[in-house]
Amino acid sequence: MKIQGKITEETVVVGVGAEEMWKVYSGLELGRLVSELLPHDIGTVQPIQGHGGVGTIVKLTFPPGTPGVGYLKEIFTKIDDEKRVKETETIEGGFKAMGFDLYRIRLEILENSADDQSTIIRSTIEYELDENLANFLPFVTIKPLQTMAETIGKYLCEKKKTTA
């Protein structure tokens, strides 16, 4: 029997418009900034194949001491510039190595109707695994995606201040 699940969380980033945030999230810039700003929290990201479009494969190497497998590779499966949606799936290492049949991340960059200089980042994780592996479910967390959104938002705000 399979266990399927989904967790979603919205993070509000103040001071950065949706279009500016999408420029970072839509391609390889996100991985570059994660590597630069969050190497000890999330890890380092290295492009393996492609230039940031659908089909691009990146490798995320986790910081030392992170439980589980030390890396994962994911493929960009969807990039929708109009709706500002990006989806990736783990294809090797990480949750795949733990036995998950599916581990998909969906990132949506939404305009905050209350303020055009803030953005809502809706992060969703979808997963599927055999019920015999249910002990791995506590490892599924949206926290790294929230940390990433908050840190990149702060970085973009600071960057604006220094160039203004």
Automatic annotation (TrEMBL):
Keywords: Alkaloid metabolism. InterPro entries: Bet_v_I/MLP (IPR000916), Plant_def-hormone_signal (IPR050279), START-like_dom_sf (IPR023393). Pfam families: Bet_v_1. It comes from the Eukaryota. One of its GO terms (molecular function) is protein phosphatase inhibitor activity. Belongs to the BetVI family. GO terms for biological process: abscisic acid-activated signaling pathway; alkaloid metabolic process; defense response. The lineage of its organism: Eukaryota, Viridiplantae, Streptophyta, Embryophyta, Tracheophyta. PANTHER family: BET V I_MAJOR LATEX PROTEIN DOMAIN-CONTAINING PROTEIN, OS08G0374000 PROTEIN-RELATED. SUPFAM superfamilies: Bet v1-like (SSF55961). This is Bet v I/Major latex protein domain-containing protein. One of its GO terms (cellular component) is nucleus. Residues 6-156 form the Bet v I/Major latex protein domain. The keyword Glycosyltransferase does not apply.
